[in-house]
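Quick one:
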Amino acid sequence: AGAGAGAGADADADADADADVVVGTGAAASSAAAGDDGASTPSAHLISFGSYALNCHSPDADIDVLCIAPQHCTRADFFGTGPGSLHARLVADPSVAELLAVPEAYTPVLKFRMRGVSIDMLFACMPAHKVLPSPPEAILRDQHLKGLDDCTIRSLNGARVTRTLLTLVPDPDRFRTALRATKAWARARGVYSNVLGYLGGINWAILVAFICQRYPSAVPSTLLSRFFRVYHQWQWPAPILLKSIHEEHPEGMFCQVWNPKVYPRDRAHLMPIITPSYPEMNSSYNVGEPQLRSLREEIARGVELTFAIEQGKAVWSELFIGHNFFAQYQHYIQVDVSAHDAAAHRAWFGWCESRLRQLVLCLDQPPSVQAHPHAEFFEWTATRGSKERRPRSAVAATPEGGGVIGTSFYVALSFAPGVRQADLTASISDWVYRMNMWDRRQPGMDLSINHVRAKNLPAYCVGAGSRKKMKGGGARVPEAKAVRLKAAARSLTPPPLRERTPKDTNAGEEAATPTTKAPTPPPPPVAVAATIMAANPIAPPLSPPRNAASSQPGPVPVKATATAAEAPALSLGTTAPTSGAGVPTEPAPNEKPGSRPRSWADIAAGSAAAAAALKAQESPLKRSRIRSSSDSD
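Output:
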């Protein structure tokens, strides 16, 4: 694999030949068990796909590789931790670093760095082949999909789509140039990330290929202009199709094909971009409403700029100016994922990263709130017990003397006009619950969600020169004013449940009381109450109890609440209401609402009064309906 990656890095031939190598299994027992018909030694095929195979990758991009193995090599031999597995051999290889196996993913993947190059390796076992056919591309034909499970078909789909894509564009060279420009624009504007609900490499490739089909003789600059204009007017969720979908399945195969008329789940997709190879799938099923809204805004900006460029009022470099994400909004949600060592952080962050798009959807649920995710992560290190954070390079190790390695992710929030308070308790409680349920979580793996105002953003994400830097190149991250947070739990073992007492309630109120009064600023556009919640191994309640004085035991809260009249912030957690806090109580089962039981005379009198009131309102209601009908006419 290392030789294949190194040789492929120096080659810039067509996609059909990039980094396609054959490697031996290296396991004598496996080879002997597979000996048959005097065939040669069984081998596996490594086939590149994605942007590297399309020859439009950036210098720091990873290499997507598909490992196709014969029948005697199973998924356990690939992802397992046994002495003969590929995973174990990569662990022993000194040229391999940052190894992470994700066998439980929707498409299982093995992530690692070899000789400084990031590699994402998928695996597909072909149970019908003792020896794989040659050349390697022959195994990607439709007839070889018979008898494969869904996971293996998804793993093969990336390489199959890459090969099919180049056969559907009229001019591959112009297609590559337009695709490079489109991806550079998407990265600069913060909308390039499949895992966060935006579009990834294959999505952008299909979109550009669709424009190339519509304008077969256009040069790359024209293709880029038409890209923005076509998708600015596109009526989503109308699908993007490079060729017609298979209406009939090939002989002997039945794979689920994207069809919104048959499958309700496909009908819910917002931005369907359909892959061109069988079985046709929606490559952009991750896109949610917040991401689609941001994509529309950026595409509209691209339309304005390309028109200005054609009129000589702008230049192409203006199209690729970075997004002013941290200067455009006033309220941000900061998600910090941290651990005490690099290996634990890599595993913990991989789990949280794959579900961050669900958090974005949760934040966008309230009708008065809009979430705007930014497709960029910020890595940092901090000494244990210190609030000072320093940007971390890709090869930085754990700070000397022990420390914390973390990654931050930001979501901006905007509010409807007139909104003065927003409570996101119900929006994120379920997401935090699912994060805490990860069975591989270890002590030291921490997750915190904070509301941060624009003026309190750390310097490492705002940019150089925008904030006064601290000694050592780092920036002190200020906490939100008027907020104090209790220590978050860092263990998988939950503390014993006990009944909440008035002493606990008073302690929580004292911890939430601001220590210093912030200066009175001008009235902000949105004023909201403040709460910060840290993730912990105990699942928070999905809704607060109706009576704090109830005798039912509950989990001990590990979050703090604070409210500042001058500079309020955002509510992000659930807190049990204190007694006497205006929580409505219900009467006891045997308690009557009145001082005496109602008689039949009382009931009859009430019914007569209700009938008279209804009759008195009947005529105005009819007049209102007639007036509304005439107005509509």
